[in-house]
Structures are given as C-alpha cells and as structure tokens.
C-alpha cells in the first residue's frame, strides 16, 4: 500500500519517544534525524524535508512539550499537524461557474487523465451536475475512442469532432454543445506527451484562454515521486494550474509526490485516484492522509 514504508519508519521513530516519560533535546534531535531520513527515503523533495524538520523541531523543543506529561505524544501530534499543513491543511473544493463550468485536465501521457475525466464526471453526476466529457486529444490515435468507451461505461455524453479539428476549436464548440444539451460542466481531456514540450504547453495555454476553465487540474502519477513534482512545477509555471489530482495512490507509492507537490507549487491536491475503476476517486483530505501516514 501507499506510504507503507514511510509509515513504518515514522512509527518506529516515535515508538522510542513514546516510551519515555521525559524527553530532552537530544531525544528530539535523534527522532528528527530519523524523520528526516524517512522523508528523504519516501522521495520527498529535500527542501520540503528541510523546512518540515525545522518547523517540527522548533515546536517540539518548546517547554510545553518537554515539560508535558506525555511528551512523546505531543511530538507525534506536532508531526501530524505539520504533515497536514504540508498537504494543504484542509480539503480544497472545486470552483464552479454560475453558467457552464469548464474543467480542463492536463498532464503527461499515462498519468491517468482520461480515466480521471470519467471518474470526475461520475463524481459530479452523483452531485446532481450534468457533465459533458470532451475529447480534445487529437494526437494519440486511440485517445478519442478511449474517452468514448469511458463515457459509455458510465453513461455520460462525450463530445468529439475527430482528429482533424484543432483542440482549441473542439473545446470552444463543446461549450456551445453543452449549452444546447443542457450540460453544466464540461470536462476537457487534453493531450499528453511522454515529456513536457513547448508545442504541448502552447496548445494547452490556447485552450485555457479560449474556454477560461474554472479549474485547470494537473493529473500526475503519484508513483513517479519527485518527477511528478517537477512535472507539476513546470505545468504550473506555464499554465497556472488551480489544483493537482494524484493518481495511483492505490499502488505502493512512497509518498514523495503527495507530500511535496503542495509545498513546491503552492497549489492544492484536490482528488486522488485509488484504482482503475470509475468509482476509485477520493476527495483529498490532508488530515486523513497525515493520520494514515502516522498510523
Ligand atoms: P492518460 O494517458 O493520462 O489519459 O492515462 P489513462 O487514463 O489512459 O491511464 C493510464 C493507465 O493508468 C491505465 O491503465 C489506467 O487504468 C491506469 N490508471 C489510471 N488511474 C489509476 C489509478 O488511480 N490507479 C491505478 N492503479 N491505475 C490507474
């Protein structure tokens, strides 16, 4: 499962602290050394680790903790709060327009964008919205078909114009189509590449400025750790994303992406993908994630 080895390492580090009636600075220093190593091993960005450990140490060294009756527990509580803060504090909600809302999904090929488009559509329909899926990836031969299959599976309409029309025109036309069909949320599945390239970014920027989506959501594969963080940074720099969706959290990801992305990009993680099925979507709850990591 995700975070298993990080959870194990942290729990090991805190077991020692919990067992002690009183703590001194060197006990805390030693525990912080272990926390630092555990986070680095989980592929958390080194700058993020540095700030995190510094914040926790400062709070843990305070007299409130050292003089408390349960100092070990106090330290764990601080780590829990700081981990929660690191992942954004509280749940980040989606923003909707008063008329038709556009959401644009962006990300590298294979990150899970098309699957996520379907999951989001299903999630929104359960909340009484009327979503429309839009096939704006005209480059990968099977992409349009794949979205159509997803749409059929969950009974959500899919707007496609083939692969001879520019993605900007497809996106624009889809808004018009949604209006006609009474759909209120348009989910645009854009093209991904194996690597970030300028042409891709330029196209995504054009789609964004032509439909003005309420959310530009970057879909990243949590299994790719620090790479996911780099991808997020560069998409955010060019596209000013509004949030991140972390996929494949059902795998044995070490946790680096989940713990670094918010801090590095300043953008919240809004959802996580926890499997290949259309129901395998969770709202991202930083506090629950922190508690899961701390066991
Ligand atoms: P795209 O190229 O970004 O559109 O990616 P796809 O949606 O085609 O997904 C790539 C692969 O990842 C597919 O085999 C999906 O079934 C799989 N996938 C997507 N999301 C998840 C997830 O949350 N968990 C798991 N285990 N697999 C996923």
UniProtKB/TrEMBL annotation:
GTP binds at residues 107-114, 189-193, 247-250. Residues 2-87 form the Signal recognition particle SRP54 helical bundle domain. The keyword Hydrolase applies. Residues 99-275 form the AAA+ ATPase domain. It catalyses: GTP + H2O = GDP + phosphate + H(+). Keywords: Cytoplasm, GTP-binding, Hydrolase, Nucleotide-binding, Ribonucleoprotein, RNA-binding, Signal recognition particle. GO terms for cellular component: signal recognition particle. Residues 100-295 form the SRP54-type proteins GTP-binding domain. It comes from the Bacteria. Its main location: cytoplasm. GO terms for molecular function: 7S RNA binding; GTP binding; GTPase activity. Part of the signal recognition particle protein translocation system, which is composed of SRP and FtsY. Composed of three domains: the N-terminal N domain, which is responsible for interactions with the ribosome, the central G domain, which binds GTP, and the C-terminal M domain, which binds the RNA and the signal sequence of the RNC. Involved in targeting and insertion of nascent membrane proteins into the cytoplasmic membrane. Binds to the hydrophobic signal sequence of the ribosome-nascent chain (RNC) as it emerges from the ribosomes. The SRP-RNC complex is then targeted to the cytoplasmic membrane where it interacts with the SRP receptor FtsY. Belongs to the GTP-binding SRP family. SRP54 subfamily. This is Signal recognition particle protein. It comes from Proteiniclasticum sediminis. The gene is ffh.
